[in-house]
Amino acid sequence: MLTLDNVTKSFGARRILDRVSWSMPDDARVGLVGLNGAGKSTLLRMIADVSPPDSGRIARPQKTRVGYLPQDAPEMGGRSVLAETLSALDRMQALERRGRELEELLAREHSGPGHDAALEEYGEVLHELEQHDFYSADARATAVLFGLGFSEADLSRDVAEFSGGIRMRIALAKLLLDGPDFMMLDEPTNHLDIEARNWLEDYLAAYTGGIILVSHDRYFLDRVTNRTTELARGKITDYVGNYSRYLVQREERFALEMAAYENQRAEIEHMEQFISRFRYQASKARLVQSRIKQLEKIERLEPPVGAEKPPAIVFPQCERSARRVFELQGAVKKYGDLTVYNGIDLVIERGQKIALVGPNGAGKSTMMKILAGVEELSGGERIVGDKVALGYFAQNLAESLNYEKTVLRELSDSADALAMPQLRGLLGAMLFSGDDVEKRVGVLSGGERARLALAKVLAQRNNCLLLDEPTNNLDIIAKDSLLEALRRFSGTVLIVSHDRFVLNELATEVIEVGQGYATRYLGNYDQYLEKKALIEARAAAPESPKIAKPPRDTRGNGEATQSRDAERRRDRSAKQKKQIEDDIEKKESERGKLAEEMNRPDFYLARKDADELIARYEKIGREVEKLYADLVKFEEPEETL
Fold it and tell me: How many CB atoms lie within 10 A of CB 591?
């Protein structure tokens, strides 16, 4: 059990944690959520013993190891990728060296107290090495690196050759290989493509230790976590379940807290009106004094977290483009001997919302550059439609910012017909609040500059947006603001993103690129995956033998027999369906009672069987999901031949 006892942490006058007490079991999977700047990263650093609390105590079980993955790339170099990853096992390597020393000592001394002590220590060393599967470290490190997107050739390259994003992958690989008792993961998916995220989800789902995870990927949180902890205004609130369940519970809690806040506010206003009205009437003096004392005793509630809605993104009015926005005819793109596209034909029409997908290196960013006119074709033709006003965003656009200007001036100088309140609202949606807009661009972090570059694209009169990873530096609330704006946008959107939620909610078409070609699928990302899986299954399945139809019943009673059989099947199905519905009702009732108990603020402190209740809650949840899946079968109409 990892425990925070009355922990406080401040930065200047701003209090991040205010006398917080909290605990988590050894195998809990916690999603840590909260607004940008709420203190999530600070809390992870304190638990990992990287940063101390101002007061209070953080208790960890004896000999417990806590691993920490920060957001910033660590300094690395001078070793190959594989050697750097294996350096995570320095402690185990030291144990192995100690084991060899003990072997030599035992070979020299065959008896005596020194021999007995060395033999006992040698046994402990061997046990520790076997427990951590040290002798298969090379194979495990290679498997982790492959899972995170490295190739065989990458393993022998010097770490210094790679970008900061790739070095973050190596830092993640080291942490996974080390396998600490608790892992503190601060945005582990920031530099992973969808395939690597899927692999990491599976890895963490099977991990036996405790995890506290900060992520802006809803799907990742849903898959990995079973408990959600919200950090807001210096306090911690626990919710049972993953991120999607947290959203439902938080909405219910918000409604109750808002009702209490508004009721109290109405009561206070009523009392203040009474005092103001009768303050100078002698006959009401006692009543007025009584109300004043009542007013002083009221412990005033704050507006609930979430009462302040994020600013909406407003696009400038733009001219309508031609129906055909882009057309590629026999497009070829080569880099030396490497052929990225080999004679593709592609048409992008007005108003389409298209997701561009494919594995790393498939050519997604290259396609964006070709459409944006940043890269010239090696062959074929690119045709741009009439009146197309193109906005193109890529991460490297941050390099073109004027570092001497303030954030607000840099945006306003390039904005088209947006009033100052709209510009400030756009910056607020991009996570620049208050005095942040007066910061000089030169002092911003890389992520902040990328957000400002994105704001500049969104503030112009564009009717076509090419967005290459626009959500990389946005939190979930900022992503929601951008997603809602893009949904409302009447123009054309082509987007590359590793955020599956964004792809599902925005895209109406998917274009998959790879091996020199581009394949189009109608629907969102999940529908694309389903169609692709179906195509692959059909291609892999052996051809089914043709089955001869049974001879027609000419005796006159065939139809009656079939009718009776059908009626018996319907009766049997109805009984089975009723039984499933009854089972669902019982289990949902039991699950509701458990949820009510687990949502109590003192749940983990008051209940010694907390882990058992959580396990029971999750088991019932899986059973209910299976029952619903069984129930769906009875709702589907029978196919007729």
Answer: 18
Q: Are residues 470 and 500 in the same domain?
A: yes
Which residues, including other chains, have CB under 8 Å from residue 470's CB and lie 6 or more apart? 393, 454, 482, 495, 497
Chain position carrying tokens 């902040």? 448
Per-residue three-class SS string for 97-162 = HHHHHHHHHHHHCCCCHHHHHHHHHHHHHHHHHHHCCHHHHHHHHHHHHHHCCCCCHHHHCEHHHC
Tell me the C-alpha to C-alpha distance, in Å, between residue 517 and each of 54, 460, 514.
57, 32, 6
DSSP string, 453-493: HHHHHHTS--SEEEEESTTTT--HHHHHHHHHHHHH--SEE
The b/e string for 93-104 (b: 16+ C-beta within 10 A; e otherwise) is eebbebbeebee
**Count of helices and strands (H, E) across the chain:** 20, 18
- The total domain count for the chain is 4
SS3 call for 65: coil
Q: pLDDT tier at 555 (50, 70, 90 boundaries)?
A: very low
The model's pLDDT over 94-125, given as tens digits with 9 standing for 90+, comes to: 777 787 877 777 777 777 767 778 777 777 77
Same domain, 240 and 378: no
Q: Which two tokens stand for residue 45?
A: 């650093």
Side-chain half-sphere of 95: how many Cα atoms within 13 Å? 19
pLDDT tens, residue by residue, 118-177: 777 777 777 777 766 677 788 888 999 999 989 888 999 998 888 888 889 999 999 998
Cβ neighbours of 510 (radius 10 Å) = 23
**453 and 410 in contact (C-beta within 8 Å)?**
no
Strands 379-384 and 324-335: antiparallel
Asked whether residue 162 falls in the same domain as residue 186, the answer is: yes
User: Domain range for residue 402?
Assistant: 324-535
Sequential DSSP letters for 204-243: HHT--SEEEEE-S-HHHHHHH-SEEEEEETTEEEEEES-H
Query: Which has the closest alpha carbon to 418: 323, 314, 497?
Result: 314
